[in-house]
Amino acid sequence: MKYYVLIVLLVFMCFGFAQKCDDVFLGELRDFHDNTPLNGATVFIKNLNKYVASDERGKFKIENLCKGELILVISHIGCETKRITFNIDGDMFQNIALEHHIEELNEVSIAATVERKETKTSQETIIKSETLKRYSNLSVGDALKEVPGVSSINTGSTIVKPMINGLHSSRVLIMNNGVRLQDQEWGIEHAPNIDVNIANQISVIKGSGALAYGGDAVGGVVVINPKRIIRLDTIYGRTLIGGQTNGRGYNITSTLNKNFSSGWFAEIQGSSKRNGDLKAPNYTLTNTGLDSKGVSARFGKLNFESGFEIYYSFLDNEIGILGASHIGSVFDLERAINSGQPFLVEDFSYEINAPKQEITHHLAKLNYYKRYKNFGRLKLQYDYQHNQRLEFDVRIGDRREIPAIDLTLQTHSILADVNLDSNLDRKINFGVIGRFQDNFANPDTGVRRLIPDYNKYDFGIYTTVEYVVNNRLIADAGLRYDFNRIDAKKFYRISRWDERGYDEDFSDIIIDETPTQYLTNPVFDYHNISASVGINYSINESQQMLLNYSLASRPPNVAELFSDGLHHSAARFELGDIRFDQEISNRISASYIYSTSKLNLSTEIFYNKIKDFIYLRPFDFISTARGPFPLWEYQQTDAEIFGIDLTINYKITDNWQFANKTAYIKGNDLGTDMAIIDIPPFNTTNQITYNNESWNNFSASLKSEWVFKQNDFPDFNFEVEDELNEEMILVDISSPPPAYHLLHFYSEATFILSEKTNLNISLGVNNLLDTAYRNYLNRLRFYADELGRNITLQLQLNY
Amino acid sequence: MKITYLNLNSMKSTKFFMSAIICLALSTSFTSCSDDDDPDPVLEEEFITNLTLTFTNTADATDSVVLFSTAPDGFEDGTSTENIVGTFSAGATYSLSLEILNEQEDPADDILNDDIIPEADEHFFAYAVNGINLTMTRDASDIAGPDGSKLGVNTTWVAGAISNGNLQIRLIHEPTTVDDSDEFGSATGGSEDFNITWTGVAIL
């Protein structure tokens, strides 16, 4: 009986199986983003160990399926392989979406290295990680100088502020992993708070063509991105250790990444660098030490259809400022300029004393995106930044340890961005951004606030369109509107208030009064329109032309509006003006790119006309107990800046290469017919490189850097009276230093240690001939020479 | 099954992020509300409003010359004005007393005795004359300055022949080197806390 039941049951089951194994599965494969059918995809049926292919309508059919689980692995050229499980219970029809344009659309990467430009018609240059690693012991500002037309305005050699086509500070927008850096960028002596070691790729966009990032990039945009996530089950990392002779510096940075094929990823990075007093060829640059520490971490899950990322970075910089630059009066400045020697030179030390800066910057970001079929991608982002800047001056008594400037800037931003890319030939991007900023100037400094307490509200809305007209021509256009409101609380000395004539125009903003000061509450609104339009035309396979026109509007920054006080290292008073309106830039650019396997040539020309350009110029004197001080006022004028940037890379043989980078730029103040101050002089670098892949990828290069004397400069020299001897003394603050020529050497080799590990060793010598020189674009050029010879040795282990 | 799970997951994460964003946005508006208070005026320190040099005839306390320098907004960056009361008598000897005050405080802060003298090793007073027959010596009782020098707060002045000229006083902060061998004193490096010249000082 038992056997009978069992047999019947078995027979029934077999019969059941036999009977049910006739289901049909019909699949239709379509491209996720634009819904086109995918022809020729391979469908592997795991249960049956069998392959089928999709037809020209993207359809495929699997017959004789049994009930139960069906596992399909679908692959198609250029697509991400997809594994799907279905539960078969009768015939079935399924639409399956696969993405065919991951690289183009993308958060995730299949290939490890893909160069991705941010714009199509702007003058954009990418600096890759291989180049960036050479700057591990330096700053972002130093690395950006790899791009012709990009220079920097420095305060000593550690505070390096990027300058794009002669413009800097608030005119250069810096994006760090999708977040617009808000780090009190208004000041020349405020270097960007980013550790160069977090960057895997940096894009430099000249002009304001990248409207999604902001409409006020009169100079340009710097986009710093971390490594793209690779969807593989892998763990990898790199550790870099370096040392340099000049300043007895050392640096270490390490990154560890863990990725999963499911899209989850995590990355942690840390770096530390330190140097003591740097050295010019003839003397020690006392108090130029640096102590910098940074950490960053991110994790999230990135898939084609959706993903999120949480990112945090922290940077802590303590930067010594050349001791000899601390001066008390115009006479001290005049003595420094005429002696040509720093008046404070001590033995080497790692110690960092006043004057110095201590800056901490926290950045936290949270973003989420979702891609909708046949539509595009929606991205939401929130980010928060906390920037604290302490500037210590040389002070007496118990104030010695109290900073003279103590500003805390907090910024919150919310962004929603939609990218309609279902038609890859006509991508539309639009978004809105809201930002709130709160600046707090600590009164405990005992020094009148240079920048007042303020709240700032920004609201922006933008749209950009990219249109592929045909396979040779791409056009793009964009439009953006920004609203900014500054709501400040500022104390004015009554004497200054009246002298500026504010008593007539702004008496209604006074909210309180002390015996010597007014407390005012200026609230200013700015409406800004920016736009961009351009084309990218491929003349033939080796020639390309880009044309772009951009309109940018930049509201005055807080320094331009509210500055009111003595700037020590410059020995001058700086005065802002609350009457300012925004400056408006109209920039046209044209590029010609020629590239063959032997020769790469890029010529970029631009003309930037800036209406109501805000700049500082000397105006008058204030007679103080420390002698007369020049009074510099921010003014508005119409200006034009134009120039040409050239890059040539020529492969002489398989092993020898030659490269040239040249930039020429000119700036005119159309109101006064004078040149604009701080415009980089003509400079050209020529480099010859030998490399041999069979010798552990060995390469060695010799670079010649030639910077001319700037002959076009405004003469802002002035005379002060030495009352004791009753004679006039000329203070030459305008004359640029002479031209200089430097030689740099760099060599590296990479040793394969195992399948996944390699060691890159590099040796560099900067300023090979130990040439003494001064740089026109260094604000401390009055006090000391630039760095002398510096030998660096760097070991990078990739694993 | 897996698909459903994934969808759920992504819905959950969407909700999570939306709520996180809203929370953060709310907290933002709270922070913005909380600091609407008016800022306090800065109590400026290391602030000098008044410098007074009083030369008193050692033989006749009623004979004195007073040089004033005042800057109501401070020596650091305010406009200063100089005044002279009295004339030196040829051949007389004077002792100089300095007074450095911050009169924005009530009572006034004594910067000389509270700040400068306690840090005498980082300060140095240098004097200079031009066109006027004044000589000076740093007293034995003068306070020790940097590197074995005398600070220059207790000094004795001798008026020579009738003349008319300028007198300068400088306070140098953290000088690199100082030299008081000629009594008037000179320094290199450092920065000047003040540098004041009175013109038209006379010996009659």
Q: Mind sketching the topology for me?
A:
The complex is a heterodimer of chains A (799) and B (204).
Chain A: H1 2-20, E1 23-31, E2 42-45, E3 50-53, E4 59-65, E5 68-75, E6 82-88, E7 92-98, H2 102-105, E8 108-109, E9 123-128, H3 129-132, H4 140-144, E10 150-155, E11 159-164, E12 167-168, E13 172-176, E14 179-180, E15 201-206, E16 220-225, E17 229-230, E18 234-244, E19 249-259, E20 264-275, E21 278-279, E22 284-285, E23 290-302, E24 306-320, H5 330-339, E25 356-372, E26 376-392, E27 405-420, E28 426-441, E29 453-468, E30 473-493, H6 494-499, H7 502-505, E31 510-513, E32 517-520, E33 523-540, E34 543-554, H8 558-562, E35 564-567, E36 572-575, E37 583-595, E38 599-624, E39 627-651, E40 656-669, E41 674-675, E42 683-692, E43 698-707, E44 718-722, E45 727-731, E46 740-752, E47 758-766, E48 790-798
Parallel strand pairs in A: 1-7, 8-17, 13-16, 36-39
Antiparallel strand pairs in A: 1-4, 2-3, 2-5, 5-6, 9-15, 10-11, 11-12, 13-14, 15-16, 18-19, 18-48, 19-20, 20-23, 21-22, 23-24, 24-25, 25-26, 26-27, 27-28, 28-29, 29-30, 30-32, 30-33, 31-32, 33-34, 34-37, 35-36, 37-38, 38-39, 39-40, 40-41, 40-42, 42-43, 43-46, 44-45, 46-47, 47-48
Chain B: H1 2-34, E1 50-57, E2 64-70, E3 81-85, E4 93-102, E5 109-110, H2 111-116, E6 123-130, E7 134-138, E8 155-159, E9 163-173, E10 177-179, E11 186-188, E12 191-203
Antiparallel strand pairs in B: 1-2, 1-4, 2-3, 4-5, 4-8, 6-9, 7-8, 9-12, 10-11
